[in-house]
Amino acid sequence: MKTILTLVGGGERDEVVLRTALAAARPLSAHLDCLHAHVPAVLAAHYARVEFATPAAFGKVLQRLETEGNVFSRLATDNVRTFCAGAEIEICDPRGENCVTASFREEENNELERLAHHASQSDLVVMGRAAQKQGLSPYTLESLVRTCGRPILVAATAAPQTLTDTIMVCWKDSASTGGVVTAAAPLLAAARRVVFVSVAKRDAGLADAMGQVARQVAGIDVEVRVLPPAGHHIPEALSAAADECGADLVVMGAYGRSRTREVVFGSRTDALLERIDKPVLLMH
Fold first, then answer.
1. In terms of domains, do 8 and 138 share one?
2. 210 lies in the same domain as 150
3. 97: Cα separation from own chain's centroid
4. Do 15 and 152 form a contact (C-beta atoms < 8 A)?
5. Quick one: pLDDT at residue 96?
6. How many domains does the chain have?
7. Which of 204, 281, 275 is nearest to 241 (CA)?
8. CB of 9 closer than 8 Å to CB of 36
9. Which of 58, 60, 91, 244 makes a 20 to 30 Å CA pair with 165?
10. CB burial class (10 A; 0-12, 13-18, 19+) of residue 52?
11. Largest CA distance in the chain
């Protein structure tokens, strides 16, 4: 993980997102590629649901959204520069040296395909998890997880001091969890402690499978825990386990169901994100 795409919106959450990205970058001496998606007024209006406004009202809405988009762009630039100055991070092109560097750029198009393209060129993507307020699609997080082919690190409410003291990996099975373990391997290798957790009625070889995947994929030994549901739903059990082990970072596979099944039956990924207020690394 040498390039970390960090999405900044020009809002109050930029500080937490940037500090989360820095916590990931420090043990890896990675470059923070800070990107702001400038949202054109017409596209912002699409997500603002103003299609039933009168022509006169719609024109005023477009003017307001254009003004807001320019303000978000200016604030995003200021937020990155202020953060880098405070953290003593040099703003420059990646140099491959043993230090964290940063850069800032703006994308003039907020289409999900463009954001996914930028994400696919990086090793890790860092963004906020709450509903977008800067005119982006409310499905930005899920769309990027599903399409970009890169791990997505979503920030919590507060900025972490570290991500690599204790990392908890949510285990489902070898096929689905192996991919996210591979993606998170650099962070797992830098961690002081790694805990693999699965929720199941009985072990049935789960503990051995978790330990084997950790050694084969990430080259590390881990603690393994198989937790009984005990009347809880899986997201609740995993949330309790993350609190109990003091996890700085939670790693999990994401959006395993199709989009249609997610709509009909609900998303376990979204349910877990609602319950765990910790940085979470997702991989589809």
1. yes
2. no
3. 25
4. no
5. 73
6. 2
7. 275
8. yes
9. 91
10. exposed
11. 66
What is the pLDDT at residue 161?
A: 93
Q: Which domain holds residue 196?
A: 166-283
Q: Does residue 265 carry a pLDDT above 60?
A: no
Strand ranges of the sheet holding 101-107, from the earlier edge strand across to the other edge: 90-91, 101-107, 31-37, 3-7, 124-127, 152-154, 280-283, 249-253, 166-170, 193-199, 223-227
Q: Is 107 exposed, middle or buried (0-12, 13-18, 19+ CB in 10 A)?
A: middle
Task: Read off the pLDDT of residues 205-223 as tens digits, 9 standing for 90 and up.
Answer: 888 888 888 888 778 888 8
pLDDT at residue 280 is higher than 80: yes
Instruction: Please report whether residue 159 resides in a domain.
Output: no
Q: Are 266 and 236 in contact (CB under 8 A)?
A: no
CA gap 281, 252 in Å, rounded: 6
Residues 6+ apart with CB under 8 A from 115: 7, 37, 107, 140, 143, 144
Same domain, 136 and 231: no
Is 50 inside a domain boundary? yes
**Mean pLDDT value across residues 152-161:** 95
